Amino acid sequence: MKALVYTAPRSLALREVPDPEPRPGEALIRVEAVGICGSDMHAFEGHDERRPPPLILGHEAAGVIVAGPQAGRRVTVNPLVTCGACPACRAGRENLCPSRQIISMPPREGAFAELLAMPEQNLVTVPDGVPLARAALAEPLACGWHAVRLGARALGVPLAQARCAVLGGGAIGLGAALAALAQGAPGPIPLAEPNRLRHAAISAAGAVVPHVPGEGGPGAGEADLVIDAVGYPATRAEACRLARPGGVIVHIGLGSAEGGLDIRRMTLQEITFIGTYTYTKADFRETAEAIFGGRLGPLDWAEGRALAAGPAAFAEIAAGRAAAPKIVLMPGAD
Q1: What is the per-residue pLDDT for 69?
Q2: Is the domain of 85 the same as that of 211?
Q3: Pairwise CA distance, residues 159 & 239, whole Å
Q4: What is the pTM of this model?
Q5: Which residue range(s) make up the domain with 80?
Q6: What's the rounded Cα separation, in Å, for the pair 246 and 268?
């Protein structure tokens, strides 16, 4: 099969590699769509020791099962493989499983390829009327769905009365804003995004209003719930500035490991800080159902490209020249 292989920092190559061999309980999937995630970009830049080259990246996938009794079934892929037996899994918090694996990290290759093997329990059926490129957004959108759910649980007011703010206009941040709206938050939701090229797509996605950081948006101490979908010192500092006394900051982004938190203000104003990682199985399925039901908007802001165009897409994103909040690679496209 053809696969886009991460070979060294800032280097990707389209190669012929062996087809994956499904293990017992796994299905072989022909990948039709797979999104480029921020974590793929971190690996591409050489900033993720968890993803050493050579490696097939990509974990936001949807496709069609090609063999066995389920052949022809259209599916979106939950890329998080967990044990199902530990205390976290039994409590429905599979994302905290100590033996969790995610495709695009060893020992599991990723989905920037024509074929992918996945446990059948990680697959959600996609209705015939839903494009697989849209279904592939279930993974990044589930991150925001999970974050909003945890943030809403910690608020001292109902989400329907909460003033929300989002930092970051990629798929995670935009998805978090759309998830907040779908779960009952009032709109429009202000979203800080420095790349003006993305503003048109963000504005068209739903009741979300993009602005350049420092040019509009809520004032200091005005937000009940702040979602940092970037995770750099500057965005953490901004989240601390925006959160009201007693407010909640939910941190999704993994841009940088240190800096930015105003611990003194967070302590004196009892601001809750919640770190979130991926999603539970229930979050993933709820997000998929929200996509299929149109509750997250038209989701027409992703841009599709052929797998062979992957290196150029990575370079464009790294240079800040990508207008789309999400670029989805299509292994079957020319």
Answers
A1: 87
A2: no
A3: 18
A4: 0.95
A5: 2-137+299-330
A6: 10
